[in-house]
Amino acid sequence: MAKRINTRSILMKNFRQKKKNFYPPDEEYKADIDNLIKCMLCPNMCRFDCGTLQAGQSETLSPAYKARIGYFLSMGIIDPSKKENKEYIDLMYKCTNEESCKVWCPFEFSVVSLLETVRDEINDKDLMPDYCKEPMDKLNSSNTIEGYNIYETYKDHGIKNIETDGNDEVYYYIGCEMMKFPEVVKANIEILEKSGTKFSTNLDKKMCCGGPAFNIRDFETATKFAEMNKNLIETTGAKLVVSDCPGCVLTLSKRYMDAGIKIPIKIVHIVDFFAKLIDEKKLKPSKPIGIGKLSIHDPCLLARNLNDDSSVRAIINSIPDLEIIEPNFTKADVHCCGWSGTAHWADRDLAIKEAQNRIYELKETGTSHFISACPLCELGLNYGILHEEKEKFKILDVSELLVKSL
Q1: Average pLDDT in the 369-392 region?
Q2: What dihedral angle (degrees, nearest 10) is formed by the CA atoms of 191, 193, 196, 200?
Q3: pTM over the 0.85 mark
Q4: Are 217 and 251 in a shared domain?
Q5: Are 245 and 376 in contact (CB under 8 A)?
Q6: Are 55 and 105 in the same domain?
């Protein structure tokens, strides 16, 4: 008992004296020093729910350890310019955008956001890792991080391109990663058409939202893409933007606004729009699709950042013969697919292991169909399925279910 009281006393003393013991002299830092200090002094309950930590099984991947290293790099206690310290820089990128840490944090902040401020310091010192420079070079040369304009593949996949006449009701903003799932894009277009919605896709003019640049903290590139997207959206005359990618929704709204670029149009995920159309009887799912039981993988950005875990379920519940079997970690408590943020660039094997962990949780439901609403989740979860199990377990977008029932 005395030992526990002594530990608590030391902890609280450190918090009380944090300004004296840890704060730097009056210098300007881009890193969020105040919250980095709070995180590194905290008891760190978040470690039990951190996806990268669970995947890597190393305490160096815990949120608080990353915060400590971020603090040391920002203060110059660890010299980021020395080659032998590159592993510490890499650690600042071995983080997805899942923000499970925020769920547990007594201060209610996200270590993801803290690490992004450390990346600002790293970029200012011209020390951005090559695995971050590469996608930025591709983005600037081809308007997507693929190194080629992936939107042009609509011609090969038979995706209908609908050009705006400047008077759209809705602009269907297709995420660049969703172009890797042409059947989902075609399903969304068919659903929108069946609802009687006047919309456009503008694939010949389309570019990435710039989300990867915001993650990496290349603000010059991020701002450039924000301005281009703002201009494109405004040419549609649309009163609503719907996107099939939660990352795009978050970027077009919150991240643009944080960068001082406001799009004065409501922006929502497409499942939000479809759920409303079903509620208004503009979409009437009626055909059984023969799947039966299924499980849902909530995209982290949709469930936690955009606070929507109901739309996907509303759509599924409107389709006859489907039964949702929830995994243990679901809705706002969901565990990441491994493919958001920068972790998959910094350590691909770590990201795949995180995806495999999530697939294991979904398999525990006893179902063989895992439903999501995010191209990055669908990409990551597919990496998480073992090759010999590819035929047994299927990753589907909720739109693929809805279109078959109409």
Answers
A1: 97
A2: 110
A3: yes
A4: yes
A5: yes
A6: yes
Q: Which of 77, 107, 127 is the last residue of a domain?
A: 127
Point out which residues pair with 397 in neighbouring strands. Answer: 372
* Structural domain count, the chain: 3
Q: Are residues 375 and 178 in contact, defined by beta-carbon separation less than 8 angstroms? A: yes
CA atoms of 300 and 309, how far apart (whole Å): 10
Task: For residue 371, give the 3-state DSSP assignment.
Answer: strand
Contact 333, 358 (CB under 8 A): no
What pLDDT, on the 0 to 100 scale, is given for residue 372?
98
Candidates 328, 373, 372, 377; CA nearest to 355 is: 377
Last residue of a domain, one of 277, 302, 326: 277
297, amino acid identity:
H
**Cα–Cα nearest to 42, from 94, 98, 97, 107:** 107
Question: For position 350, what pLDDT does the model report?
Answer: 97
Measured at the alpha carbon of residue 92, what is the angle toward residues 209 and 43, in degrees to the nearest 5?
Answer: 120
In 3D space, the residue among 200, 397, 194 whose CA is nearest the CA of residue 311 turns out to be: 397
115, amino acid identity: L
